[in-house]
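Blinded run. Sample ID left blank on purpose so nobody reads anything into the name before looking at the predicted structure. Input follows.
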Amino acid sequence: MSKLTHFDESGQAHMVDVADKKISKRTAMAGGSIQMSQEAFELLKKGNSHKGDILGIARIAAIQGSKQTSNLIPLCHPLSLNHLKVEFELEESKHIVHMRVTVDTEGKTGVEMEALTGVSVGLLTVYDMLKAVDKRMVMHNIHLVSKKGGKSGEFNF
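Blinded prediction complete.
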C-alpha cells in the first residue's frame, strides 16, 4: 500500500512539503452530474429563471470554488491557476446536467483538488438555484477524469 503523504512518521496530519519538487505544467479534469425533475430541467434549459442564467451562475461558482480550494480543504496548497474551463452537457431524456471542470497551472503540486472542488461547488450552485422547484435533485459521480504532469505522471479514469 502506498504511503499516505498527508501524515508524518508518527501519524500526525501535515501539509506535504513540496519545496524540492520541480515546477511543471499540470492539468486536471473532474466531472460530475446532477439529476432533476423535468420541471427543474426545463427551467435550467431556458436560461432565464427568476434567479437568472443558472448554468452561467454555476460556471462562475465553479471558477470561484476552484480558486478557493486551499481555503476549503485544510491541507491543500494555495495555487496560482493559469486557466480554468467549465463545460456542461445536458442529457434531456434523463434530466441530467453533466459538468466538467479543467484546471491548468505550472507549479510544484497538482490541481486535482481544484478541479474536484470546482465541480462540487458548480453542482451545488445548480441545486441552490433550482431547489424551490425540486428538492429531490441528486448530485452523483463526482470524480477525477484525468490528470497530467508531476512525478506521478498521467492518469485517466
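Unblinding after everyone has recorded impressions. The CA atoms of residues 69 and 97 lie 23 Å apart.
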